[in-house]
C-alpha cells in the first residue's frame, strides 16, 4: 500500500474524484487530495475532504502561516501523485517544468512517481502539442493512464478519445504501477475460459468456466512486467489492458492459436477448460427438433497441453487439473504424463471455488516432488503464487 496524492484538476470528470479517493482508501492506501481552483468549480472541497478523510490542499493553503511550503511537504510525502482528471494545461506545465501553482510546483519539487489520467476533448488530446507533452512526460518516467474512447462530456461532442478512465480502472493501473516488475523479460502464454464444440449453429457442448482464473494469471503477470498473450475461450470478461488477447471458440481453434505462439513463449499456463470431445458431425443448418432419441457421436479433441509437453524445450509449463475424488494421484499422473513443471489441482465439487467463482482453493504439485496446499484465496492471489513458481523455474 502506498501514500497517494490525488491531484484533481479542472474537468467534468472531477466529480469522480470522491469515488476514486474512497476506492483508494478501501484498498488500504493512505491518501491526500489536492485540488486546483478550476477543479473546485466542478466539485466542492467538502466532498473531496470527506472522501479523502482529511483536508484539501488548495492554492490558498500553499504557503502556511508557519512558513512551511505545502508543495515541498506534499512532494516528500507522496509515493505517487495521481493527477485525475488531468487537463491538457496541467500536463503541459509539468512537461515544460513550470511551477507557478501548487500542483506544478509539487511535481517539480521532486514527486517520486507521477501518473496522469487525461480527461479532455478529443481535439485537445490529439493536438500535436498535447501529444508532444504526453511523450515528454513518459520520457520523464511518468505514467499515462488512458484516456479512453467513449462519450465526451461537452454537449454535442458525441464519442471520442479523451474520456478519463473510470476510478476502478485507475485503481487497477495504479496497482500495476506499484507492483515490482520481477517478471520483466518473461514471455508468457496463458489460456483461459471454456471451449465451445458446436453441433449446429446454435447448439454446443461446453462447461461453466468463466475465464476468471486464467485472466487473473494474465493480469498478475502483466502487472509484474511480463509480456502476455492470452488465448481466451468465450467469456463475458472484458479484455485486460496491456495484454494481447486472442479470442477462440473451439478446442481446435485454441490449439491452433497456442501452437502458433509456442515458439515465442518462454512459459505457458493452461488454465482453460478445454473440451475433451467434439461432435463428429457438425450441421451447417440448425438441426430440427425430433421426437425420437438422438445419439451424439463424439471425437476426442487433441490434448493441447500434452502436445506442448512433448516439445517442451527450456519452457516452463503449467497445467491445471480439475478433479473430484482421487485428486492428488490423478493430478500427479497428469503432471508426469504431460511433462509439466507444475500442476494446479482444483476441485469441481467444492462450494465457492473452482468454476465461475472469485476464489479458488488449490494444491500445487511441482515436478521436483513438492506439494504445496494453499488455503482458499482470491484467484488473483492464487495467480501470484503460481507466478512465483513460474519465476523460480524460469530463472532456473
Ligand atoms: O475459468 P474459471 O471459472 O475461473 O474456472 C477456472 C478453472 C476451474 C476452469 C481452472 O482453474 C481449471 O481447472 N482449468 C483446467 C480445467 C481442465 O480442463 O482440467 P483437466 O484436468 O481436464 O485438464 C488438465 C490440463 O490439460 C488443463 O491445464 C487443460 O487446460 C489441459 N487440456 C485439457 C484437455 C485438452 N484437450 N487439452 C488441454 O490442453
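Q: What amino acid sequence fits the structure above?
A:
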Amino acid at each position: 500500500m502506498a501514500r497517494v496524492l490525488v491531484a484533481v484538476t479542472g474537468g467534468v470528470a472531477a466529480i469522480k474524484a470522491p469515488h476514486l479517493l474512497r476506492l483508494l482508501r478501501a484498498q488500504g492506501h493512505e491518501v491526500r487530495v489536492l485540488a486546483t481552483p478550476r477543479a473546485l468549480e466542478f466539485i466542492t472541497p467538502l466532498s473531496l475532504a470527506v472522501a479523502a478523510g482529511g483536508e484539501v490542499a488548495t492554492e490558498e493553503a500553499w504557503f502556511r502561516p508557519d512558513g512551511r511550503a505545502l508543495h515541498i511537504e506534499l512532494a516528500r510525502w507522496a509515493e505517487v501523485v495521481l493527477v485525475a482528471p488531468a487537463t491538457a494545461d496541467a500536463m503541459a506545465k509539468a512537461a515544460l517544468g513550470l511551477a507557478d501553482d501548487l500542483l506544478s510546483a509539487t511535481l517539480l519539487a521532486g514527486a517520486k512517481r507521477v501518473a496522469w489520467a487525461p480527461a479532455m476533448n478529443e481535439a485537445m488530446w490529439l493536438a500535436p502539442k498535447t501529444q508532444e507533452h504526453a511523450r515528454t512526460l513518459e520520457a520523464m518516467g511518468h505514467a499515462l493512464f488512458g484516456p479512453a474512447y467513449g462519450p465526451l462530456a461537452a454537449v454535442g461532442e458525441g464519442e471520442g478519445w479523451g474520456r478519463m478512465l473510470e476510478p476502478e480502472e485507475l485503481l487497477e493501473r495504479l496497482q500495476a504501477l506499484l507492483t515490482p516488475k520481477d517478471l520483466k523479460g518473461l514471455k508468457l502464454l496463458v489460456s483461459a475460459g471454456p471451449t465451445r464444440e458446436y453441433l449446429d449453429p446454435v447448439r454446443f457442448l461446453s462447461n461453466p468456466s468463466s475465464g476468471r482464473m486464467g485472466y487473473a494469471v494474465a493480469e498478475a503477470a502483466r502487472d509484474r512486467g511480463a509480456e502476455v498473450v492470452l488465448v481466451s475461450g468465450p467469456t463475458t470478461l472484458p479484455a485486460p489492458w496491456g495484454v494481447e488477447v486472442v479470442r477462440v471458440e473451439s478446442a481446435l481453434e485454441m490449439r491452433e492459436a497456442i501452437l502458433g505462439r509456442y515458439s515465442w513463449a518462454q512459459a505457458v499456463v493452461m488454465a482453460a477448460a478445454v473440451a475433451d470431445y467434439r461432435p463428429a458431425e457438425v450441421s451447417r443448418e440448425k438441426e430440427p427438433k425430433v421426437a425420437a432419441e438422438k445419439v451424439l457421436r463424439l471425437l476426442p479433441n487433441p490434448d493441447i497441453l500434452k502436445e506442448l509437453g512433448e516439445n517442451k524445450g527450456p519452457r516452463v509449463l503449467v497445467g491445471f487439473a480439475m478433479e473430484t475424488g482421487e485428486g492428488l494421484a490423478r493430478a500427479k499422473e497428469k503432471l508426469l504424463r504431460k511433462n509439466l513443471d507444475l500442476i494446479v489441482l482444483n476441485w469441481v465439487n467444492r462450494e465457492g471455488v473452482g468454476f465461475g467463482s472469485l476464489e479458488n482453493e488449490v494444491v500445487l504439485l511441482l515436478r521436483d516432488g513438492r506439494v504445496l496446499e494453499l488455503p482458499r484465496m482470491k484467484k488473483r492471489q492464487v495467480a501470484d503464487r503460481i507466478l512465483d513458481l513460474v519465476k523460480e523455474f524460469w530463472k532456473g
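Q: And what stands out in the fold?
A: The chain has two domains: 3-178, 187-395.
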